[in-house]
Amino acid sequence: MRTGRTARAGQYVALLAYLVFLAFPFLWLISTAFKPPRELGSLHPTWIPRDPTLANFRQAFDEQPLLHAAFNSLIAALGAALVAVLLATPMAYVMARHRTRLARAATGWVVVSQAFPLVLVIIPLFLVLKNLRLINSMPGLIMVYVVWALPFALWMLVGYVRAVPPELEEAAAVDGAGRLRTLVSVTAPLLAPGIVATAMFAFVTAWNEFFFALVLLKTPEKQTLPVILTHFIGAEGVADLGPLAAAAFLATLPSLVVFALIQRRITGGMLAGAVKN
Length: 277
Hints:
277 residues, mainly alpha, disordered C terminus
């Protein structure tokens, strides 16, 4: 008993340390965003600003087109999430219901593709988009985001489809429902939570993406919010720390809100395929 309690206490301590490790950058970001310049340059920084101010937020909006960049990020993220879900849903259904060698090979490729670094794929993607004349365009960026988000979206949806008992579809077929009617009336409503979670995950991935947007978008009016944040760093590498922290805090909020809403659904999608009916 004593050994078990000690082990559990150690687990809780390790979990608490991990949470502190994850929360520290965000808490320090919030603190920095509300500090005046004299506190930012202090040799003895504090967690709570002594004289909190909103000047950093006003300066950030004055110096950079944050709202326009946020709109570009919103368009790219929504477009990528919508297209990725539309493509991944029927593919996931086929892979989950028809477990052939081809389906198993496709599942293995999905897992392997997640190990590819961004630098490895950016040159082929750039050449393809150049031939299609989609460089420096929002449709080209959305296409890249869809390609990057599709494997993980497919993997998530396969777990949700496998969690739907095939007996429900068989019962609908016995009652005279065709394949399309069964998918629309029986399977689709049960997959709705998984589809929503997958779409929101793809949205967050595209919203936070930086590397592809930096390489593919050249004109400032088309750049997304993560790229605009780099403009707060001068030519000599000196950052305008206060406005940068304020802008980064505002850019982080949508991701935190979305993950707070869907974290349970994401966990459910990852574990759904582990249960055998």
